[in-house]
């Protein structure tokens, strides 16, 4: 789904490690990309999956993964 793409874009552009980012900051950033409430929840879920799997933590990790 495109939710995963949006989540990857957000995580890749975080200024710090994903584990150091607060939920309120993530909410603000997600609202820049998505407007519908259902979509916001889906993107949050994808970001939490990324956070728990620790695949991509910063922009540098995102670039190296490609």
Write the layout of secondary structure elements.
Layout: H1 2-12, H2 23-33, H3 37-53, H4 59-65
Helix pairs in contact: 1-3
Feature tags:
single chain, 66 residues, mainly alpha, globular
Please, could you describe this protein's structure?
With 66 residues, this protein is mainly α. Helix content is 70%, strand content 0%. The chain is built from 4 helices and no strands. The longest helix is centred in the last third of the chain and has 17 residues, at 37-53. The radius of gyration is 11 Å and the shape is globular. The mean pLDDT is 81.
Strand content: under 5%
Overall form: globular
The assembly state of the depicted protein chains is single chain
Q: What's the tally of helices? A: 4
Radius of gyration: 11 Å
What low-confidence regions span 5 or more consecutive residues with pLDDT below 50? Answer: none
Helix content: 55-70%
Helices and strands, in N-to-C order?
HHHH
Overall mean confidence score, pLDDT = 81
Quickly give the structural class. Answer: mainly alpha
Q: Main sheet?
A: none
**How many DSSP-defined strands?**
0
Q: Distance N terminus to C terminus? A: 19 Å
How would you sum up this structure in a few lines?
This protein has 66 residues and is mainly α.
């Amino acid at each position: 789904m495109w939710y995963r793409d949006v989540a990857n874009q957000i995580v890749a552009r975080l200024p710090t490690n994903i584990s150091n980012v607060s939920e309120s900051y993530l909410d603000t950033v997600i609202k820049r990309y998505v407007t519908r409430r259902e979509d916001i929840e889906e993107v949050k879920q994808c970001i939490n999956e990324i956070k728990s799997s620790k695949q991509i933590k910063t922009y540098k990790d995102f670039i190296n993964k490609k």
